[in-house]
């Protein structure tokens, strides 16, 4: 790095000079030259905060659907502390939103069931007595993968409709799991690892739809561009952590959210403020966003964390810290705030997920207004409005 030039300034200069790669697949086939840049979003500016303290674009509304340590409205079920990763699943004429609990020993996951009109009709537990359940991912066969975030953490396959016990999936590796995303074309599950020198993995089940057996692989490469995969020798029981078992494994600074769509797996790394784009067909890696590569003004998206997407191709990235926003990254390469939660300064936004019809967005403020690390003041919200579809 040149003397007297900050890392951000140096990277901005490199980007302007054409030093970053254009994207090659999925949403990025329209090929803007480099990572997303700030701009005006499709919904316009954020309005004054509503009664829940949330700033939204015109035409959107919010409601609180659950509070940690309080009964979910209309049910006798007490919502869990520290709500984290989440997903939605169709359920007859309605749908179900599931949410992890990122606390030790009693973490697990819960579910809220909605009818066709969006009324809450039930809430219940789907996973018990697990620890630090952070994020996860939905499967094409309708289960929720709940991931434990500690050194020997495991993936649990759970059933959103309830009535069936969750199942451990140790073949998917024991490490500090964060999120998962299924690729039904290549029949693999991508996995992130929340370590400062973590890795990006994929699990190839022996039989698609059955996660009890398979091969865990780690991404190998030297940066953006072509990458390959290599088998992790000992994913279940190890004395050498999975991330250190394969020479040349690519390192990522704090793997967080993971979302697959249209041949591309997007995943975030909080340590360097990046959203990565892995083109599964071309087997190449690029950057969809980097807060150090914002070329004008301050980056609108910082503290990248959970990520999801809409059928329109828009990505929605939640902030852990930052200024408590969910930012959009549009297919034409614009990054812009979609919502901002006020008064929750010591919290983080978690669990963004769309209802199956794309008309409602769910998310949580993990520690709420109090910021208490135990998450007993968590809030879970629903946003309704004219989402692009």
Automatic annotation (TrEMBL):
Cross-referenced InterPro entries:
PhoX, TAT_signal, TAT_signal_bac_arc, WD40/YVTN_repeat-like_dom_sf
Q: Membrane-spanning residues where?
A: none
Q: Give the protein's recorded name.
A: WD40 domain protein beta Propeller
The scientific name of the source species is: Thermomonospora curvata (strain ATCC 19995 / DSM 43183 / JCM 3096 / KCTC 9072 / NBRC 15933 / NCIMB 10081 / Henssen B9)
- Classification of source organism: Bacteria, Bacillati, Actinomycetota, Actinomycetes, Streptosporangiales
């Amino acid at each position: 790095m040149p003397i007297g030039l900050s890392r951000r300034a140096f990277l901005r200069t490199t980007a302007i000079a054409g030093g970053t790669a254009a994207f090659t697949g999925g949403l990025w086939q329209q090929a803007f030259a480099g990572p997303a840049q700030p701009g005006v979003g499709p919904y316009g500016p954020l309005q004054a905060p509503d009664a829940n303290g949330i700033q939204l674009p015109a035409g959107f509304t919010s409601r609180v659907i659950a509070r940690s340590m309080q009964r979910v409205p209309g049910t006798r079920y007490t919502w869990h502390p520290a709500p984290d990763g989440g997903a939605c699943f169709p359920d007859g004429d309605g749908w179900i939103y599931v949410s992890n609990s990122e606390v030790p020993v009693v973490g697990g996951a819960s579910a809220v069931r909605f009818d066709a009109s969006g009324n809450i009709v039930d809430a219940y537990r789907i996973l018990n007595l697990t620890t630090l359940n952070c994020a996860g991912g939905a499967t094409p066969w309708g289960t929720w993968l709940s991931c434990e975030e500690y050194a020997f953490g495991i993936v649990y396959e759970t059933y959103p409709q309830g009535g069936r016990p969750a199942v451990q999936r140790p073949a998917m590796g024991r490490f500090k799991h964060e999120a998962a995303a299924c690729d039904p074309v290549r029949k693999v599950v991508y996995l992130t690892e929340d370590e400062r020198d973590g890795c990006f993995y994929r699990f190839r089940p022996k039989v698609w739809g059955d996660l009890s057996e398979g091969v865990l692989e780690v991404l190998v490469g030297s940066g953006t561009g072509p990458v390959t995969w290599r088998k992790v020798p000992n994913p279940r029981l190890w004395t050498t952590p999975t991330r250190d078992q394969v020479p040349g494994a690519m390192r990522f600074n704090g793997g967080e959210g993971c979302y697959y769509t249209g041949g591309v797996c997007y995943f975030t790394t909080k340590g360097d403020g990046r959203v990565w784009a892995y083109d599964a067909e071309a087997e190449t890696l690029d950057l969809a966003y980097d807060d150090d590569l914002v070329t004008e003004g301050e980056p609108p998206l910082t503290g990248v964390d959970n990520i999801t997407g809409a059928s329109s191709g828009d990505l929605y990235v939640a902030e852990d810290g930052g200024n408590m926003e969910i930012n959009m990254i549009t297919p034409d390469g614009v990054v812009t705030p979609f919502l901002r939660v006020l008064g929750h300064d010591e919290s983080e936004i978690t669990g963004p997920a769309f209802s199956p019809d794309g008309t409602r967005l769910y998310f949580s403020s993990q520690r709420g207004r109090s910021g208490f690390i135990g998450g007993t003041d968590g809030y879970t919200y629903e946003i309704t409005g004219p989402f692009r579809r």
